[in-house]
Write a structure and sequence with these properties.
Distance between the termini: 77 Å
Oligomer: single chain
Number of strands: 13
CATH architecture of the largest domain: Orthogonal Bundle
Strand content: 15-25%
Length: 437
Amino acid sequence: MRMRSVLIALLLMALTAGTLGPAFASGERQRKNRVDAQMDRLRHELSETTAELRNAVLALRRAERELPEAQAAVARVRGQLEAARARDRELGVQLEAARAEVAKARRAIRVTENKIDAAQTLIGRIASSSYRQGSYAELAVVLQSDTPDDFATRLVLVQNALRSQGAVIGDLAEDKADLAAQKATLDAKEAQLAEMKKEQEALVLRIEGLERKAVAAQEQVEALIATRASAVATIEREKAAEQRRYDAMQAESRRLQAILAERARQARARAAAAARAAAKRASRSRSGGGGGGGGGGGSAGGPLSWPASGGVTSSYGMRVHPVTGIYKLHDGTDFGTGCGAPVRAAAGGTVIQSTEVGGYGNQLVIDHGYMRGAGVATSYSHLMRFTAWAGQRVRRGEVIGYSGGGAGMQGAGYSTGCHLHFMVYVNGATTNPMGWL
């Protein structure tokens, strides 16, 4: 009954695995895809920081993601190992019982064989006596009686002797039948014992394999815990430095904003003066009857062009810094360009800065003048190199540099992966570039 229950349980497990396996695998794939997407977002969020800090954060997240599964693997293997050891102990008891039964069966066979040997010896003696005395030996014994009582007594003795011979022969046949059955039972028990020995040998190998697997799983858990601890220590050490880097970039941004705000003020003043001059010319033209010219003093304006190929990997806006936990502004839009990809001017204008600037790395700034009623400028950071310089006039779509930002790359600033950090300033203040593209 116990073996039948085990077989039923195994069958149910197989059926369940067949039914739920694909759904479980699909769920695992979806979970992995979600985690991978989260890791990609984190990489982009950390693209403007040091390689050491970025690697530490990624290692921490990876360890935190993998540790629960590694710990579950340890528990799973230990459970399998304990089950195998319990089965080994149970099998050991069963083997001892089976060996005792085999020994008992062999003893029973020896007893039966001894009985058969004794019976065959007795039958041999009877046969020998009959041969020597002839076929009428028993009758002669009866006929030699002297009195009727002696005759009756001798007749009973002869009858008993004949019955004893028959009983011996009958017992011999039964003993031979018992011997055949006992040998068949012994063969079955020895076959069962051999199967149990084979199972135990396989079980010993399985236990050894599970022990190695358990050690490897535990080592993986310990390695992940060590990685997590190391990453946490690095992050704690780098938090203050990261805040200092962020503060330095904010200071640089404020310096540039002040410059651009002043240039925007001057652009608005020039636009206002040009508008007043145009109005005066129009007034004189109407009073003097002359024809007209006009030619306004403002830029034609219009949307800005996309500065680089590649999709947006990090948008403009407020967010929580993944390391410091501070709610801060990501002051531009990041484009996922490859290293060395061309970067183009979003509109025509004058380059007012092309130099390495702290965390922004190689940064180029273009003043586009008066557009849509405001002074507009754009900046392009983490460039590998420039092809336009301060004081130069550039056209919309003209290549002004090449994308950089890879770890250790010249002019990368606080960047660990090649991308373009694109910013739009309106009257000196940053705004969402996507509203202008």
